């Protein structure tokens, strides 16, 4: 199976510049359905599923490869090369933001700009660094997921999504979690929540950091940290709350990206 089929790649739009959208943990490309179409007039948009997610080829999943973010980043580069991308824009949500930084470092000719939505290089507090969680809290989260995938999904989705006045958003995220193969979900969670990629932030690629105003997964201190470490970054604090503004506040997310790209 070629990489286009492996990652269930979908290309739309008619612009000369390409935009690749990457989804976060427990999700698939459908999470961009309210954002990506807004760019199809001016860009060629690329959606895909990480291996193990959505309609990707589950047979291509190898636990060893995807035990680090490098495995996912390698897939991003493979897809981009298969599509002959040059000077493209990478839009990554949550953990995919860090995958995008790795991909851009490994293949600098492919991506000229990074849009990082709710990025976090490490979820674990460390000395002066505030990631949002203690190591014990992360370990408890992972044990809970190991013991009861469906229960964890239903309990965590509202926490991650926020916006308690719009329960349909948490329900969609919970359903997405539940559709994921449990064994792959557990592995992806460990890769996501135990990775520490603070050392890769020393990049000079132009980047937009979109930070939600109240996000328990990636608190404001994380956005400030990423911005301080990335020399050519711009930090925008959205009015949106929760960790998924691509679903909860698509118009604000679209507006912030367009303002940056057109600036």
How would you portray this structure in words?
With 263 residues, the chain is of the alpha/beta class. It has one domain: Rossmann fold (3-Layer(aba) Sandwich), CATH 3.40.50. Helices cover 41% and strands 17% of the residues. It has 10 helices and 7 strands. The protein has a 7-stranded mixed beta sheet with strand order 1-3-2-4-5-6-7, with helices on both faces. Strand 4, helix 3 and strand 5 form a beta-alpha-beta unit. The longest helix has 14 residues. It is globular and about 45 Å long. The termini are far apart.
Tags for this entry?
263 residues; alpha/beta; Rossmann fold; 7-stranded mixed beta sheet; 41% helix
Helix-strand layout with pairing:
Elements: H1 3-6, E1 10-13, E2 17-22, E3 43-47, H2 69-82, E4 88-93, H3 95-106, E5 111-117, H4 135-147, H5 149-161, H6 167-179, H7 182-194, E6 207-214, H8 220-229, E7 233-241, H9 245-248, H10 250-262
Parallel strand pairs: 2-3, 2-4, 4-5, 5-6, 6-7
Antiparallel strand pairs: 1-3
């Amino acid at each position: 199976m070629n990489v286009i089929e492996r990652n269930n790649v979908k290309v739309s739009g008619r612009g000369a510049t390409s935009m690749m959208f990457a989804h976060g943990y427990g999700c698939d490309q459908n999470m961009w359905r309210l954002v990506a179409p807004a760019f199809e007039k001016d860009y060629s948009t690329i959606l895909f599923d990480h291996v193990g997610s959505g309609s990707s080829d589950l047979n291509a999943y190898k636990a060893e490869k995807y035990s680090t973010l490098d495995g996912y980043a390698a897939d991003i580069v493979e897809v981009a090369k298969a599509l002959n991308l040059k000077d493209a824009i990478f839009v990554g949500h949550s953990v995919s933001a860090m995958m995008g930084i790795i991909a851009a470092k490994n293949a600098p000719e492919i991506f000229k700009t990074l849009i990082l939505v709710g990025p976090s290089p490490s979820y674990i507090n460390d000395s002066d660094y505030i990631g949002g969680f203690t190591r014990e809290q992360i370990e408890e989260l992972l044990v809970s997921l190991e013991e009861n995938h469906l229960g964890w999904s239903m309990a965590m989705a509202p926490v991650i999504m926020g916006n308690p006045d719009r329960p349909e958003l948490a329900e969609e995220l919970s359903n997405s979690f539940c559709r994921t193969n449990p064994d792959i979900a557990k592995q992806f969670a460990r890769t996501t929540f135990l990775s520490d990629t603070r050392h890769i932030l020393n990049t000079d690629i132009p980047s937009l950091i979109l930070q939600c105003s109240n996000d328990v997964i990636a608190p404001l201190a994380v956005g400030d940290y990423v911005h301080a470490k990335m020399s050519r970054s711009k930090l925008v604090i959205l009015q949106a709350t929760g960790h998924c503004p691509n679903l909860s506040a698509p118009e604000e997310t679209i507006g912030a990206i367009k303002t940056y790209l057109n600036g």
